[in-house]
Design a protein that fits this description.
With 332 residues, this protein is mainly α. The protein has a single domain (9-319), classed as Formate dehydrogenase/DMSO reductase fold, CATH 1.20.1630. 83% of the residues lie in helices and 1% in strands. It comes from Halohasta litorea.
């Protein structure tokens, strides 16, 4: 019996770096899916009148702050398991990281500042700040991730296209969420916006991959034509087209589910391109930069239960606010 247990234990220990790479990517996917939805609502905010804007704020107000937990989870898990990647990613993109924080700050404080004065001009300025922060944050975040996975300069064409693609995906997620939470003309408008942004996102993915294929080194080209990468791209097209069909049929909750899938597929493509070379710019692999076995074991024992608790909390939160919404808040 002992001889059988030892190889299994050894295999589990050797697999922990890959497991934690998966945890890091999962945290990033949850952030893209959930806070990306918030960004999309913030962008759509610019298209509505005052009454609809109150409805938009009511729709994601109770879950907004909670969704931001996942960017903290992403940074924490990356630091805990792969500190060298964390330090390189931030130090080599320092100004971009600061700009992302500032854009998040603008988005966060604008609705609060809006309530401090009952002046039309003040409201207009705060609304502009809110929309600006909601648009610029995913653009810069996508640019940073594009620079990371492709090993290119910050404002290279592949990096910028990644940022633009993330903006389109956020718009799709926000529109689908609002369509599922509202009804009437507002929901109809969200279907129209969401259909256009889905088409833009799918087209942007194709353009991005074509650009990367022709501009990047041979090893990146080889990754793009592998079975996992091809499967992710084809699945994204399927989810996107399925979402458009569900939206037009009025099946808005299913549509929102497809946007969730699109977010996970996007990060799945990121994971495919980063594994096992987790920092392409310097050629660092997962096994080379992972923390010591003792630290990784302790992180696993202490960290994974916390992650499960967070997931349970999100299930409870979204279950509590699962109903429709109007200008006054969620219906009971």
């Amino acid at each position: 019996m002992t001889s059988l247990l030892i190889p299994v234990d050894a295999y589990l220990v050797e697999s922990l770096p890959t497991v934690w790479f998966g945890v890091v990517m999962f945290s990033l996917a949850m952030y893209v899916a959930l806070d990306g939805m918030d960004f999309g609502i913030g962008m759509l905010y610019a298209t509505r009148d005052d009454h609809d804007r109150e409805t938009l704020l009511s729709a994601f107000g109770p879950i907004w702050d909670a969704n931001e937990v996942w960017i903290v989870a992403f940074g924490t898990t990356l630091l805990a398991a792969f500190p060298a990647v964390y330090s390189r990613l931030l130090s080599e993109h320092y100004l971009l990281a600061i700009a992302i924080v500032m854009a998040l700050l603008m988005r966060g404080v604008a609705p609060e500042l809006r309530e401090q004065r009952d002046e039309p001009e003040w409201h207009r300025r705060c609304d502009q700040l809110f929309v600006f922060g909601s648009t610029v944050t995913p653009l810069l975040l996508g640019t940073l991730v594009g620079s990371w996975i492709f090993g290119t300069a910050v404002f290279s064409l592949p990096s910028l296209l990644t940022g633009v693609g993330l903006v389109a995906l956020c718009l799709t997620s926000g529109a689908a969420f609002l369509a599922a939470k509202t009804s009437g003309p507002l929901a109809d408008d969200m279907v129209r916006f969401g259909t256009l942004s889905t088409a833009a996102y799918l087209g942007g993915v194709v353009v991005l991959l074509a650009v990367v294929y022709w501009l990047n080194p041979a090893n990146v080209r080889a990754l793009l034509v592998t079975l996992p990468a091809a499967a992710v791209v084809l699945a994204s097209v399927g989810f996107g087209l399925g979402g458009i069909a569900a939206a037009r049929q009025g099946r808005h909750k299913l549509w929102f589910g497809t946007t969730f899938g699109l977010s996970f597929l996007l990060v799945g493509l990121v994971a495919t391109l980063l594994y096992p070379t987790i920092y392409p710019a310097s050629g660092l692999t997962i096994d080379a930069v992972v923390v010591s076995p003792l630290a990784l074991n302790l992180t696993t024992i202490l960290g994974l239960p916390v992650l499960l608790l967070v997931l349970w909390y999100f299930k409870f939160l979204y279950g509590t606010f699962a109903g429709p919404v109007d200008g006054e808040g969620y219906s009971t």
